[in-house]
Amino acid sequence: MGGKRIAAAIGVVVGAGLLTGCCLFSGTPTVTIGGPSTATTGTPVTFTATATGGSAPYTYTWSFGGSGSTVTHTFTSTGGQTIGCTVTDSCGKLAQAMWTVTVSEGTGGGNLTGMWSGTMYDPGGNSYILQLQITHVGTNVTATVYFLSATTQGSGSYAAGQFFLNFQWPYSTLIATLSGTYNPYADELSGDLIIGGTKQGSWRVRR
């Protein structure tokens, strides 16, 4: 009698597993990507991944760091760019898809207008507070630079993800350049401090 009860219990558990969808018998998911085939630098574009099969729910991981079935991405370099999406279903089974976009140079690469705060580092690793109040129109950039307890004005450019700002070094007649790139995901500008054609440190600010 005891053996029959155990066998019956096992039968109920196995039957329940089959009814709810056991990973052992689930299929393999597939995924497709939809979105534009052309884009310009600095202009956000949206892509959507559609998963089928396998066992929902799905998680989506994009090659440029995004997550979710629908994501927005801003390209910072021109040419043929290939993006990818990996889908993982609830059973841990994977599917991948690729999508190619032809990227041309935009007019300004996004808008950087706003207050940016962060740090400047000298070659010895010492850090100093740096703030930039940027106005960005087209490819032209102007800024008020707050650094070393002084305020100075700067001007430069931003296009295809590349940022340049020339300003007068506080308490001197030297012209310094902030040369760097924009990371749209972190909303961050960073790069090198150049004085007299030589790198004299680095900097990083966020809006």
What does this structure look like?
This protein has one helix at 2-20, and strands at residues 30-34, 38-40, 45-52, 59-62, 70-73, 79-88, 94-104, 114-121, 127-137, 140-147, 150-159, 162-168, 175-183, 188-195, 198-206. With 207 residues, it is mainly β. It has two domains: 26-104, Immunoglobulin-like (Sandwich); 114-206, Quinohemoprotein amine dehydrogenase alpha subunit, domain 2 (Lipocalin), CATH 2.40.128.120. The strands form three sheets. The protein has an eight-stranded antiparallel β-barrel with strand order 8-9-10-11-12-13-14-15. A four-stranded mixed beta sheet has the order 2-7-6-4, with no helix packed on it. It has a three-stranded antiparallel beta sheet with strand order 1-3-5, with no helix packed on it. A hairpin with a 4-residue loop joins strand 13 (175-183) and strand 14. Mean pLDDT is 86; it is low at 2-20.
Based on the model shown, name its key terms.
207 residues; mainly beta; Immunoglobulin-like; Lipocalin; 2 domains; 8-stranded antiparallel beta barrel; 4-stranded mixed β-sheet; 1 helix; disordered N terminus
What is the percent of helical residues?
Answer: under 10%
Number of strands: 15
Estimate the strand proportion: over 45%
The CATH class designation of the largest domain is Mainly Beta
CATH homologous superfamily designation of the largest domain: Quinohemoprotein amine dehydrogenase alpha subunit, domain 2
Mean pLDDT: 86
CATH architecture of the largest domain: Beta Barrel
Q: What is the molecular shape?
A: elongated
Q: Describe the largest sheet.
A: 8 strands, antiparallel, barrel
Give the spatial strand order of the biggest sheet: 8-9-10-11-12-13-14-15
Overall radius of gyration = 26 Å
The low-confidence parts are: 2-20
What is the CATH third-level topology name of the largest domain?
A: Lipocalin
